[in-house]
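ok here's Sugar ABC transporter permease, seq below lol
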Amino acid sequence: MTLSATTENRPRHASRAPRKRGPKASMGARVRGWASTTWFLLPALLLFFFFVLIPIFVAFYTSFFNWGGFGRPDDFAGLGNYRKLADDPVFRGDLWRGLLLVVFSIVVQLPIALGTAVLLNQKMRGRAVYRAIFFAPYILSEVIAGVLFGIIFLPGDGFADKLVGDLPLLGDLAGKWFADPDTALPTLFAVMTWKYFGFHMMIYLAGLQGIPSEVLEAASIDGAGPWRRFRSVTLPLLAPTLRISVFLSVIGSIQLFDLVWVTTTGGPTHSTETMAVTMFQFGFKRYQMGYASAISVAMFVISMIFSLIYQRYALRRDLQGAVTSAGGRR
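and the structure came out like this:
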């Protein structure tokens, strides 16, 4: 009997050598590994404890008191601040305006950023300069941007009024930008789009440059046009980047404060006020720190609920397969 015949008659499972496992780590080695990991993580854990967990606990604790921010809180109010929060028309308006900003960001701001990223991902002269120009507004601080647009939209003498004053369709906007409750929020959103779309554009550019060119070339060889390649190849491969961008945009809209405070301080008549602005007004202008803490807790709960739901149903697919066991298997 030849060697080949012997090999053919051998059972299939017999040709596989049993997997040899390495020696099991001793208890001392595991303790040393755990201690080393803890030692490296200790600075980050301390920072997280003192600057995240303790402020959350203090805000939650003081939200049950009528407290002005000085001394130790001793006037226990129970759920009084939260009942006041539920009955406050300004806070309910903050929720509605926050929802509008979230929707506008997803529907308007992010598509503009995506379209700009797709254009600047093409081979063209001076695209590095264009990228720098579009990203430059994000580098500016919110205070500088707020002061700049406060001057631009200044009633009467502002650049915006002079620009639209002679136009037949936009002439009625002159003097109203931040001064009219009906136009203040759309004007604020235009400033937000100018300020933040460059950040999302750079995220999309990074995602686009991570798409293999061979895939797009194969789709082009198969007869797919530019729109078909974008819809069937680019968008699916860019989906993880899009989901991260949406998450950052929503969280940023919920926590928006500095740009609003510098441009409008929440006015006129609360038309641009956000939850963060209302919290600042009550906490540092009216010295109702207990009520301001209740607002901060509400913001935290809203952000946490959205984050958990979004991670559960949107980001989970991006994490599948990313975390593996030591043996390489999930």
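fwiw The radius of gyration is 28 Å. kinda neat tbh
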